[in-house]
Design goal:
- It comes from Brachybacterium huguangmaarense.
- Keywords: FAD, Flavoprotein.
- Pfam families: Pyr_redox_2, Pyr_redox_dim.
- There is one protein chain.
- This protein is an alpha/beta fold.
- The chain folds into three domains: 4-59 and 114-176 and 299-370, 3-Layer(bba) Sandwich (FAD/NAD(P)-binding domain); 190-296, FAD/NAD(P)-binding domain; 381-483, 2-Layer Sandwich (Enolase-like, domain 1), CATH 3.30.390.
- The chain contains 14 helices and 23 strands.
- It has helices at residues 31-42, 57-61, 64-81, 106-131, 213-224, 244-257, 307-310, 346-360, 390-394, 411-415, 444-447, 449-456, 461-466, 476-483; strands at residues 23-27, 46-51, 134-137, 139-144, 147-151, 162-165, 168-171, 175-177, 190-191, 205-209, 228-232, 260-262, 267-273, 276-281, 286-289, 291-294, 298-300, 333-335, 375-377, 382-387, 401-406, 422-427, 434-441.
- The protein is globular.
- Residues 1-18 have low confidence and may be disordered.
């Protein structure tokens, strides 16, 4: 999961164990932590990684890898159920759209989810061991800008906690689900997204509180698995921070699939009564369910790190304050990932960690540019985006022109029965430089890459259109929408 092309050759004068080898201590074993550890090891540093929750962090063990594994299963079932129009029939001749024999064994699904997460964690742990990184199982705490104290059963010695000296410290402790006092989580009927993988039977009725990325993804997945789903949104639409037309496509897909969206509704409290859970809205209305997923955001895991003692500044939200090369205000201390609040994406955490370590060890680095970050929402259909949005153009924040092409005109989409979705491109007026784009489609997370390359390398729409695409392919619509931009000289 590393990016070798990003690394520079190791300096032979700083071989691990030599007097000149810098001591690097990393707190947190998620993408920001393990990626930075591998970079530091390749540069000959003496690297120590302190981890309390499991190598890979939440991204691998309780968040990204598990959720996308679950979603992959839901996606297959959704495709099979929607294959009646393609001429597929069950052995009884039934339309798969309505065949009651198609069902998900959630116990088996979640067993596979947990096994894959554990296997991915083990793979990363092996990479760290092979690179010579020393892993300490425990909680790390700054006692000085150049000292990290490690607490934990496996590291506690007779003389107390272990103290590690550091020339460079990187904090990558991530975030945890936000919990509300009015909706006590019990891990059985009222759950956070980290606890869903312990369920061994499909909920009869799942109420998802929160319509951001996490809420939308799980609402989409559990409906595809066959669960009755109600999504409670305090906003006027799902995915309030996403492209408006993309969110509209998703809402229509939700309606067609039977997801009930309660817009402009706020959950006041959640009360469990045996096997029933009551979601009480601020309007006084109650929604009865078998299970409730609280998807109301995350809070940075920055308490107990000794930040105040070390003089490391935090924002009002509790995130570690960093610049674009991941430096904190204290020399030698860096931070990466969700604890910084830059963008809550595993890919961003990994890039922050790599940039931080290259910078700390004296390499020339390019700062993180959030405009170049591609991101996706893994619903059905997926929504992927990069760069400048149409909303920014309409608000006059960025000068740009937009072009949109519906996927309904794409021959491969027709073959696959894809009726929803579109591609949009945003270009600079005059020059035609690609500033951003949106893809709404199955596998949009894969299709966004050409647009991300165009944004990163400042390609023009003409250059994007000139590249060959396979016929027929959904990616052909990326070139086609670029051809609809007036040519520039």
């Amino acid at each position: 999961m590393t990016d070798p092309s990003f690394s520079l050759p190791a300096d032979p004068s700083r071989r691990r164990g030599s007097p000149a080898a810098p001591a690097v201590v990393i707190v947190g074993g998620g993408p920001g932590g393990y990626e930075s550890a591998l970079v530091a090891a390749r540069h000959g540093a003496d690297v120590h990684l302190v981890d309390a929750d499991g190598i890979g962090g939440a991204a691998v063990l309780t968040d990204v890898v598990p959720s996308k594994t679950l979603i992959a299963t839901a996606e297959v079932l959704d495709q099979v159920r929607g294959s009646g129009d393609l001429g597929l029939r069950t052995t009884r001749g039934d339309d798969p759209d309505t065949d009651p024999s198609l069902r998900a064994d959630l116990g088996a699904v979640n067993a596979r989810v947990r096994a894959l997460a554990a296997a991915q964690s083990a793979d990363i742990a092996r990479s760290l061991a092979e690179a010579g990184v020393t892993v300490h199982r425990g909680h790390g705490r700054l006692t000085a800008p150049d000292r990290v104290e490690v607490h934990g059963v496996e590291v506690q010695g007779a003389d107390g906690p272990r103290s590690l000296r550091a020339d460079v410290v990187l904090l990558a402790t991530g975030a945890r689900p936000r919990e509300l006092p009015s909706a006590p989580v019990d891990g059985e009927r009222v759950l956070t997204w980290t606890q869903l993988y312990s369920l061994d039977a499909l909920p009869e009725h799942l109420v998802v509180v929160g319509s951001g990325v996490t809420g939308a993804e799980f609402a989409s997945a559990y409906r595809a698995l066959g669960c009755r789903v109600t999504l409670v949104s305090s906003r006027d639409r799902v995915l309030p921070g996403t492209d408006r037309e993309a969110a509209d496509v998703l809402e229509r897909a939700f309606a067609r699939r039977g997801v009930v969206v309660r817009s402009r509704s706020r959950a006041d409290r959640v009360v469990r009564d045996g096997d029933t859970v009551r979601v009480v809205l601020t309007s006084g209305e109650e929604i009865l369910a078998s299970h409730v997923l609280m998807a109301v955001g995350a809070v940075p895991a920055t308490e107990g790190l000794g930040l105040d003692e070390a003089g490391v500044r935090r924002t009002a939200s509790g995130h570690v304050e960093v610049d674009r090369v991941s430096r904190t205000n204290v020399g030698g201390i860096y931070a990466a990932g969700d604890c910084t609040g830059v963008l809550p994406l595993a890919s961003v955490a990994a890039m922050q960690g790599r940039i931080a370590m290259h910078h700390a060890l004296g390499d020339a680095v390019a700062p993180l540019l959030t405009r170049q970050v591609a991101q996706a929402v893994f619903t059905a259909p997926e929504i992927a985006s990069v760069g400048v949005s149409e909303a920014e153009v309409e608000a006059g924040e960025v000068a740009g022109e937009t072009r949109l092409l519906a996927l309904a005109t794409n021959p491969r989409a027709k073959m696959q029965g894809i009726e929803e979705g579109f591609v949009r491109i945003v270009v600079a007026p005059g020059a035609g430089t690609v500033l951003g784009g949106v893809v709404v489609s199955p596998r949009a997370s894969e299709l966004i890459h050409p647009l991300a390359l165009a944004v990163t390398h400042r390609l023009t729409a003409d250059e994007l259109a000139a590249a060959f695409t396979v016929y027929p392919s959904v990616s052909g619509s990326l070139a086609e929408v670029a051809r609809r931009v007036p040519q520039h000289t």
